[in-house]
Amino acid sequence: xxxxxxxxxxxxxxxxxxxxxxxxxxxxxxxxxxxxxxxxxxxxxxxxxxxxxxxxxxxxxxxxxxxxxxxxxxxxxxxxxxxxxxxxxxxxxxxxxxxxxxxxxxxxxxxxxxxxxxxxxxxxxxxxxxxxxxxxxxxxxxxxxxxxxxxxxxxxxxxxxxxxxxxxxxxxxxxxxxxxxxxxxxxxxxxxxxxxxxxxxxxxxxxxxxxxxxxxxxxxxxxxxxxxxxxxxxxxxxxxxxxxxxxxxxxxxxxxxxxxxxxxxxxxxxxxxxxxxxxxxxxxxxxxxxxxxxxxxxxxxxxxxxxxxxxxxxxxxxxxxxxxxxxxxxxxxxxxxxxxxxxxxxxxxxxxxxxxxxxxxxxx
Length: 364
Description:
By secondary structure, the protein is an alpha+beta fold.
């Protein structure tokens, strides 16, 4: 959208992508100025309000997300995808991280909006994640040239089945170990800082005096744990090249414990204050890459499969299978192929009517 008056209605598609839900927009349908755009999105999602009662948001970070998609000018890429995390109880919009869950819906959305011509049978869409510049290819069924959301693929944390969306990530440009070390000591705790698409700090749950099998709601009520995690995050930010991270959504913190259900490792991941009821795709990719590096935190408790096989990352509502290869032969580990199967579903396609700008947001 070019300059001019801010719209009072915007074309929008609500989609579930992986274990998240978000509003998908064409970039051309939104204001071009970031500040004006973000204000519109806050009002459209119903923020700031812990219930998001006056908008599309679902009162949780996992359901207060936005994908902005546009045709790419790069001949090697089909579409550009900007992820925006919309604050729930706060008036903040952050683009400092990717979202691998909403990524699962970007390819189908691009076909639905005519940005990519579908093939008869299966379509692959090359996607650039504008938040970091990293690349991925999403492949999904398009029988008869139409997106088919039905299928037999299951992912933990989502009821029922849907069509598989296979996402393959190209190796990123960021170092897998952003601090240059396999282990660091932050706030008196031994950790491994990893970035395989999502800056993530790996921490042994036992080092924080918890088991790692607790219910996420119970962990969120633990004030002492929250204080400790905050200290670790604040120290990790500058070391990982993220700068000051107070009030930001990265890095994620993933607490690790031995697997309980035959997988590779059990996780409890903070995003960054709320405990994820599952685990994000890119956080899982970082956990998996870290576990492939000799000496990293968590490797001693993990049940690692053979090289080339998928790692099963356990989380509070099930598991996520992910392929993550790391070449550790050189002076610094280098990420190789990372791939995962997710699902997505179109929930509605229509128009969102944001709360008028002059109307004050509710306080509770």
